[in-house]
Write a structure and sequence with these properties.
- By secondary structure, the protein is an alpha+beta fold.
- It contains 27 helices and 26 strands.
- β25, α20 and β26 form a beta-alpha-beta unit.
- α4 runs antiparallel to α5, α6 packs antiparallel against α21 and α23 runs antiparallel to α27.
- The longest helix has about 45 residues.
Length: about 750
Amino acid sequence: KREKYSALGVQVVRDGKTQRTDSRLLVPGDLLYLESGNLVPADARILEDDGRLSALETPVSGVRSAVKKSCRIPAKAEEAVSGNMVYAGTLITGGTCLAMVCRTGDDTLLRQIRTPKKDYLPPLLDHAREYCRMLSLAGLLGCFVISVAGALCSISLSALLALSVASAAVSLCDVALALACLSFAKGLTQMEKGGVIVHNLDKLNRLARVDTVMCPKELTFPPKKPFLDSVFASGKLYSAEEPPAREVQEVLKLTLACSDYPRSLRGYENVTAAYLRDKCIPLTELTEEWFRVDTGIGSEGEVNAVISLNKDHYRVVVKGAPEAILARCAGYESDGKEYKMTPEAKKKILDAAQRASRNMAYLVAVASGITEEDSLRSPFAERRLIFRGFLAFRLSMEVDMAGGIYRASKAGIECVLSTDDPYYTAAGIAKSVGIISHEGEMISSQEIAASDRGMYVLNSGKYKVFLEPTEEQWLDVLRLRKEAGRTVLATGTEDTHLPLLREADISAVPAGEKDILRESADLVMTENGFQVFAEGIAGAKMLYFRLRWLLQLLTAGACSWFACLLIGIFAGGTFPFGLPEVLLGGVAGNLALASVLALFPMDRAILQQKVPVFGRKTFLRELLPPLLTGICTGGILFLCYFLTGSAACLFPGALLSQFLYACGCLYEEGAIRRKRFGCRPLWILLPVLAAYCGLLLCIPALFALPTRQQLLTTGGLILLWHGLIQLLLFFKPKNKKTK
């Protein structure tokens, strides 16, 4: 599925028919149809073009501007890049052409120029590999230290070497990378199910640190089927559930009169017509008594003004956002009478609009008036407009969308929204889902242009909703957020958004967008909605923490056995455990717990965890806590042996210690602050480990069966030690520098 969304789609001419196919299925001889915005999938010879063909060939030629291409440009032997060829990895910037595929795959010019690294691993797995190498070297160093200590204490070197090698095997340094790859694959699969396909694996750690998401409204809240919620008519707000009064019917019919009824209705017009039909209100007068004379079309192709002949008069009808329509009206209607528009009346209407917009409503206002003109282009056509009312359409909103924003805000992730909705609609939606708390966090394109630059930069961080920003203003928002130290995820749906996607820390586009957008993005979204961004960030964090927990668990486990053995050597030249204890308890137990952590289920609270900047130093810092914990745990295990005199007690004691470490010590804030200890798979594993211990302890050839008192003493000391660790984590000050 990931390949389905990440591979290029291309138009191929086969058997005289143009069809869209996967670029990976191309073979030499196929005919490609290419047009502006297409990313070329293979090296191809141009057969036909429209004379306006141009391409950006920076990947293969290094030229940073588009160059003219044509089938009439002769090829020259000394030129590596020919004018009558298009090359894989280049972008068609203008015109159209028909080209025949010459080279595909590794034979393309781009592949010959850029030979990929053979040992490439994503940064997360590469750091895990480096960590495993460090574990291996640390194991060798531990074996050397124990051998030297044994020689100083005159202990048999052969037995000591066997125990030290077995202790080093507890780290599972050879198996750890395989478990890390398994965890990595599980994380990517979970993110894919959440609606995000990672196109650029190098950006996973940056995705985990995203704290700002910039996206347009249609991607944050995909449009759902609206329904009529209320109608403002004659100075009153009527619920749509009530039988429509005469004045309500007039406002509804005027709205349809300013449309293409009955030929084609768009969105809210269709909902209005359906509502009137459901209420059995006849609409014959719209076709029999209204005769269209002139029509005004909006920027998106919708009808927003008409002049019609109605009852022997030219009647002009306009519709749009309430604030925009009110500014054009000379009067208003109330109780069936017309009055002059006053500031008080305007404020009353706007207050009603604000109340209606609180319930995720989209408002459409309508005004009409008698005119002497027969053309909307006349400046006198709208001189006597009377405000008739507005319709409030409720937008059904999925719980997951608002839930995603709530989860993100709790984790310190802000949503920065661009919208072309009217002011009150945008404010109502943004407030309802928790993006803003008041209108002071909104700003329009006109306000940005009119404001002082210094004051705007100073206050830019507080603005969360931008009304109809230009491309330059939206790009400026990104730059200001980055200058403030934020890690920004930005989305794009148009070719003009390419600069935005290039400058963002993480870029994302929907799966159905153009090839050039999908190929240049770090993430491909198979679904829309803010919950997709929240799931993607949480998935990246979960992937990072799984790898971290896995490696820290293995480090702490191996270190505890080394420390216990070393303390035993210096304490009296004795071995506190034998090979059965370290192999069956340390290696087998660590393998079982590490497998569970590698497949750790998604934690809903993971979004609130902070991920540090990833690097070699980060791993060295993260090595210290499990190293110290392992050393102290080794001391506790030796104390158990010293008090009980039973080496067999170390077998269940080490398993219990590792289990408690896996449950409670993997989050930095500890289990008390998290109010959670472990997870369901770990607790399911506990009885399995207990049965495993009980079965092996009953085999006389392996262990001398410990008494109940010895087991209780060992278990009590282990529980006391891990309880002390949790108290230390609870009182540990938070690291404010972690991002």
